[in-house]
Design brief:
Structural class: mainly alpha
Number of helices: 9
Number of strands: 2
Order of helices and strands: HHHHHHEEHHH
Radius of gyration: 28 Å
Shape: flat
Low-confidence stretches: 4-36, 196-202
């Protein structure tokens, strides 16, 4: 009986007022709340507090919120993330998975606010009379730049003074050694042939 009670206590990080379903939808974790962590959430991590930390981080992308959800302080979370011992490698790998999930969640939220919009309350005379849908043009632009950078990225044209061509200062080759001249000729030849300087041997 004691073992079962202890296990039940461990499975709830704090107080039982948030369901796994709410957590999966990205419930607000601004204050410490209970997270009933199921074994299916990062099953490779046996410690329930670390699982709570990972699940919260995968939703919020916030180390502070993750620590609150797991019922630990920020220093503990920092130590977990920077422990390079072999025994901690599964947790570090899970953190990378959590980061990827958090990035996907943030991208989905940017898309939602930019293209689907969010409902905002409308008040008249201090009373709620309805809602209006608000869109974010800025977030829509950011999403398009990330999704289709070739089409929507900013184009920068480099020009010289007064909008004219860039003036290149002449290079005094007399100051170069024979070895430096040899390398310069080789680089110039590769540039003419369409190869970059990184292709140079050595």
């Amino acid at each position: 009986m004691v073992a079962k009670a202890k296990k039940a206590e461990e499975q709830t990080a704090l107080a039982p007022d948030i369901s796994p379903e709410e957590l999966a939808r990205g419930a607000l974790l601004g204050v410490p709340q209970a997270i009933n962590i199921e074994p299916s959430c990062f099953p490779e991590i046996p410690d329930v507090k670390r699982r709570a930390y990972l699940v919260a981080y995968s939703i919020t992308a916030s180390f502070d919120q993750a620590a609150k959800a797991a019922g630990v302080d920020r220093k503990t979370g920092y130590n977990w993330r920077h422990d390079q011992q072999d025994s901690n490698k599964p947790f570090l790998a899970a953190m990378e998975t959590g980061r990827a999930l958090a990035c996907e969640a943030m991208e989905a939220e940017i898309k939602r606010r930019g293209f689907s919009g969010v409902e905002e309350p409308v008040y008249q005379g201090g009373k709620l009379v309805g809602t209006k849908r608000k869109f974010s043009d800025v977030l829509a632009i950011f999403y398009l730049k990330g999704a289709m950078p070739d089409k929507y990225r900013e184009q920068h044209e480099h020009v010289g003074a007064g909008g004219g061509p860039i003036q290149l200062a002449p290079v005094d080759l007399s100051r170069l050694s024979e070895e430096e001249l040899k390398k310069a000729r080789a680089l110039a030849l590769k540039a003419q042939n369409g190869a970059g300087p990184l292709d140079d041997e050595g």
